[in-house]
Write a structure and sequence with these properties.
The protein is α/β, with parallel strands linked by helices and 222 residues long. 36% of the residues lie in helices and 15% in strands. The protein contains nine helices and eight strands. It is globular and about 40 Å long. The two termini are 14 Å apart.
Length: 222
């Protein structure tokens, strides 16, 4: 099963706290998965930023082994996923890539990349979840479950009922996304989510470490 229940997404432009400053502290506190999602950056700049972020966790990390596909060794168990760009994720030695709704579909991703990367997929419907599962995704985010400014462009919240229907029809690990707070974790789990994903609940928190600890307690582990 998926080796994490909490999936943190970076937001350097709108968050109160800097990912470069806080990600090492969050990793030391037990964070297991992070998506680097800086959509405004051009590929070359995104690579540089993602490498800097990676190296705050694993100093002098090396890219994934070109033959064996092994991730760079390091003291942290934190898994990195890169938004949309599978080519950059592979070059960076990341665990995987996270596809947006408008990304090249998982089913059309090159076999070489599919063999070496784990794929997460953003979904907003039961049909999207089923398609991600059929294509071989490792997990999917589903949302927005609750109202949140960061997901306003995706329309009104899908709600817990849709999460419940998707979980009932799919064996794919689902991470509830959109307006998620520690207090909303239990309803999401009861609806069938494997875990949750968050942005502002951590990056805008007065104390990101305390926020992470609250999520860990609500989830029964990060």
């Amino acid at each position: 099963m998926l080796p994490f229940r909490f999936y943190l997404i970076t937001d350097r432009l709108h968050g109160r706290h800097s990912p470069l400053e806080w990600l090492p502290r969050l990793a030391n506190a037990g964070l297991r998965a992070v998506q680097v999602r800086e959509k405004d950056l051009a590929p070359a700049v995104l690579y540089i930023f993602a490498a800097e972020l990676r190296d705050t966790i694993v100093p002098n990390a090396v890219p994934r082994d070109a033959v064996a596909g092994r991730a760079a060794p390091g003291p942290s168990k934190l898994q990195f996923f890169l938004n949309d760009r599978a080519d950059l994720a592979l070059a960076l030695g990341f665990a995987g890539v996270h596809l947006r709704e408008d990304s090249l579909p998982l089913a059309r991703q090159p076999a070489l990349l599919r063999e070496r990367l784990r794929y997460g997929v953003s979904t907003h419907s039961v049909e999207g979840v089923l398609q991600a599962e059929e294509a071989g995704a490792a997990f999917a985010t589903l949302g927005p479950v609750y109202e949140t400014p960061s997901k306003a462009g995706y329309g009104p919240p899908v709600g817990r009922k849709l999460l419940e229907r998707a979980a009932a029809r799919s064996r794919l690990p689902l991470l509830a996304l959109g307006g998620i707070t520690p207090e909303r974790v239990r309803p999401c789990l009861e609806a069938g989510a494997w875990g949750v994903s968050a942005i502002s609940a951590v990056w805008d928190a007065e104390d990101p470490l305390a926020a992470l600890a609250s999520f860990g307690e609500a989830l029964g582990g990060l």
